[in-house]
């Protein structure tokens, strides 16, 4: 018997945890480019793209060809145990694409939240500080650490209690909501006055264009002021480009249009055309040297002295 959306929704309700929502009452049988076909044969235009994951559309021929070629070689190995050339090639390409007139290096992960968490870890290790400034209505993920950065309680952290500490919330400039660049910068100064000194802040993290917050673009003057502020106090500026990256704003990274560059940039979602890949890219001369210490357990490093010089 042919499947129906109603029957699959009932099975979903019985088998899948309630926290995994379903925005639309349809189960998809197949997809191509921007067209979706559900299990009952109805066609839809996909305006969601898996929440900014499919800039290239469903089953892009180049993506399918690359995956097929890779599957004929191997499906998985840990790069920190045995290397493989495509990892290096991806990092080389990202280093070339990321804005900033300095040498860059990258590290790859699986999810956007994982990239953000590692960016914070590296900023903390680099500065020796623990505080992080994020912005109201910003979105950085739904793991415990990234929920602390995400500036919306409902629906993400409702009923979960307080998130991990040492995160301070500033205002994001938005003319529509009456928050000027001066107001936003003043809110950071209030944090410095009432909550944490600049010497306690490891990083300032923001989306160049807020996604979940309402698609608000950070003014260039604000980004320039943040860059100057971070340079003055030795704070790491992190651009979260998980949603804005991979061409969604007209350039590969949104920060290319801001007139300044971040110290660390996170990327994920559409970077792999629908497959789980994320990463961070940043200044080679500073934070990247900490990758081995921050991302690899010391016991693993001790067991692999030849592979990890």
UniProtKB/TrEMBL annotation:
It comes from the Bacteria. The keyword Transport does not apply. It is an enzyme of class 2 (transferase). Belongs to the class-III pyridoxal-phosphate-dependent aminotransferase family. The keyword Transmembrane does not apply. Its EC number is 2.6.1.19. InterPro entries: Aminotrans_3, Aminotrans_3_PPA_site, Class-III_PLP-dep_AT, PyrdxlP-dep_Trfase, PyrdxlP-dep_Trfase_major, PyrdxlP-dep_Trfase_small. This is 4-aminobutyrate aminotransferase GabT. It holds the Pfam family Aminotran_3. PANTHER family: AMINOTRANSFERASE CLASS III, LEUCINE_METHIONINE RACEMASE. The lineage of its organism: Bacteria, Pseudomonadati, Pseudomonadota, Gammaproteobacteria, Oceanospirillales. Gene3D superfamilies: Aspartate Aminotransferase, domain 1, Type I PLP-dependent aspartate aminotransferase-like (Major domain). It comes from Nitrincola nitratireducens. The gene is gabT_2. One of its GO terms (molecular function) is identical protein binding. Its cofactor is pyridoxal 5'-phosphate. Keywords: Aminotransferase, Pyridoxal phosphate, Transferase.
């Amino acid at each position: 018997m042919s499947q129906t959306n109603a029957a699959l929704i009932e099975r979903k309700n019985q088998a899948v945890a309630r926290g995994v929502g379903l925005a639309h009452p349809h189960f998809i049988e197949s997809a191509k480019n921007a067209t979706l076909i559900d299990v009952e044969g109805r066609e839809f235009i996909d305006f969601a793209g898996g929440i900014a994951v499919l800039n290239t559309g469903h089953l892009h021929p180049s993506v399918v060809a690359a995956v097929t070629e890779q599957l004929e070689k191997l499906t998985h190995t840990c790069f920190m145990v045995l290397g493989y050339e495509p990892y290096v090639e991806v990092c080389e390409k990202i280093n070339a694409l990321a804005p900033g007139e300095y040498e860059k290096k990258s590290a790859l992960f699986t999810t956007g939240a994982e990239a953000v968490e590692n960016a914070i870890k590296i900023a903390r290790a680099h500065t020796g500080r623990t505080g992080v400034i994020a912005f109201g209505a910003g979105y950085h993920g739904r793991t415990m650490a990234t929920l602390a950065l995400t500036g919306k309680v409902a629906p993400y952290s409702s009923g979960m209690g307080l998130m991990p500490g040492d995160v301070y919330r500033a205002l994001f400039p938005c003319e529509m909501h009456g928050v000027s660049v001066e107001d936003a910068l003043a809110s950071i100064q209030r944090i410095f006055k009432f909550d944490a000194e600049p010497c306690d802040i490891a990083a300032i993290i923001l989306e160049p264009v807020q996604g979940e917050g309402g698609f608000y673009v950070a003014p260039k003057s604000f980004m320039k002021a943040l860059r100057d502020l971070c340079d003055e106090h030795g704070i790491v500026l992190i651009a979260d480009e998980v949603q804005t990256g991979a061409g969604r704003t007209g350039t590969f990274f949104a920060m290319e249009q801001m007139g300044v560059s971040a110290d660390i940039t996170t990327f994920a979602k559409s970077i792999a055309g629908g497959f789980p890949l994320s990463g961070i890219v940043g200044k080679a001369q500073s934070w990247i040297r900490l990758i081995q210490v921050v991302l690899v357990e010391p016991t693993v490093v001790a067991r692999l002295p030849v592979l990890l010089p």
